[in-house]
Amino acid sequence: MDGKEFIKSLPATAIKKREELIFEAIRNKDNHPITWTSIKCCADNHLVEFFVMKDCLRIGHTNPVRVNVSAYTMTQIADYLGLHLQTTKICDLVWMNSIVKISPTIFPPNNAMANTSVMLDHSNKIDAKIGSGEGLIGNVGKHWVTTNKFSIKPDKAANYGWYDKSAPQQCPVPGYNMWQNLGTVHDVYHVDYSQVIRFVQSTVLVNGVEMDIEEIGNDKDLCTAISYEGTIKYWRPPSVPVYGKPDETKLVFNRTLKYGCRGDDVGEWQQFLNDHVTATKADGIFGIGTKTSTIDFQKKNNLVGDGMVGPNTLKKANEILSQPS
Question: Is 79 part of a structural domain of the chain?
């Protein structure tokens, strides 16, 4: 596949169909071959070696183009490929160990910044800056990352990157600042030209012995190799379901539940109330007790206390279900 021709065939704006077509290209193995490099660091007197992509993910065997996707799509691509999102510390280590360091390519913020033409323009400008440089490449864009801050913002995505001595934000990397410190403003569907795709392999070496990156992140001593936040509680944005696996915990109702409704969906809502609010009889009948408990839940979560289970109430319930127990 020719990457530039593929990009030109995509919808002109950042719509769901564009995300689907990019993901489909990856499933069809139309991405440029991924090359990997290792980064070594120490934690608790152990040598930890993890493996990252040398460049960001590109589509096309010829004329490859770096693609932009939402945190939702990127996380599901990681699922499909068996890879992981970076942490902020991994991003910093990638920059510090980069053989090719380039300045950020920043376009003025406007309504076109997510357009497909801007995606292509950004990738072309990155190629021009890299030139004939080889090895680990830094600063090709911002990254969707994972963070423990999802505990207080479970419906958000997190982004990070763009190292530059003239940037305004403080940075853990000596001698540099950054344009994007850890941010949790965007939801998981946000897309713009700056958000590129770089993954970490799941296999990590600790003193030469293979371990899974999640084992490292969950170990109170080893986690310091890849995390500034202590043990890693989240490996993905909580609101993104695992690709190919039904989300068994998520509540999905095809109607607004209210007083007088009957059915299995009412029973599911009653069970949620029973588990998270107050004792509620799960009989599948939306009576006065269920309405009262629903209002209690809504008021507790700063929602309109109308006693009906509409989109906002359902969203808040699923945010609670997505949090680790």
Answer: yes
